[in-house]
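EI: anyone free to look at a 301-residue chain?
SC: sure, send it
EI:
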Amino acid sequence: MGCSSSNPSAYLHNQFLLKIFLFSLMLLTANTNNIDFHQLVFTTCTANQTFQNDLEISTSLSKLSIVSSLFQEFLDKSSESKFFETYAGDDRIAILGLFQCRNDLNHDQCHTCTNKLVDISSNFCGERIPARVQLSGCYLDYKAEEEREVSKLLMLHKVCSRKKAKSIRYEEEMGYAFAEVESCGMSGNGFCDLSYGKAHVMAQCVGNLRGCDCGECMNKAVQIAHDECAYSIAAEVYLDGCYLSYSYGKHKISSYQDEGKGSGKGTQKLVAIVAGGIVATILLGIVYYFMKSWGKKDDDW
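SC: here you go
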């Protein structure tokens, strides 16, 4: 029987794996907190369905096929357009779908953002309709044709920063910025991005909403931000027909630190699934390696 002895090579390898694990956790934390055009804001999907018969199963498969064809068309169009709306369907169901990117993204950025949208929606929503996936820089929305008459003023999601700024300067600068956005929307501009003092406000209407309808939607978003996020130094408001975000100073919205409200309840769940999956994979790999190493040590005895 041989004597056990320390193996410098195995020790260094274990240390290397530990460093990889810690570094992966750092990357995970950095990615979930980083705010960019690909940051997930919210998702809305109907609940998972329980199928009662073959017809319902067949209809579900039909929806999945239609939604998949929509996604492919979105990807094709996003290289040349920042907004696209179309119908897709068969003899059972017609689905209205659209995607839109922020107007200040270039076409390459729009295509990359749309690709991210399709990945998330495919994995998280699938054939369930209606559904919407909203990232910071783009969103997609699809619903059955009979659901197209949803009010453009319907609030989908709202988040207000916990941090407040109660000062006369804040009220004056935010009041002026809000008034300018309302004026911008009423003038027919579908995208408004402006700053005044420390206030920065951005608003955008869905691509098929113009003129007074766009202005009405932006006014509603401003009203919600003003009334329900009073004195918050950052907020985001998403209606069916438009969305608005503002910040005062350098503060930005963080979904982990700020207060949200609306129908976009899938966001934290999705982030948790992704984060948990990555961590679980890393841990399983390390556990497997150590079990294999211990097995080799037993063979040496």
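EI: The chain is about 45% helix and 25% strand.
SC: 👍
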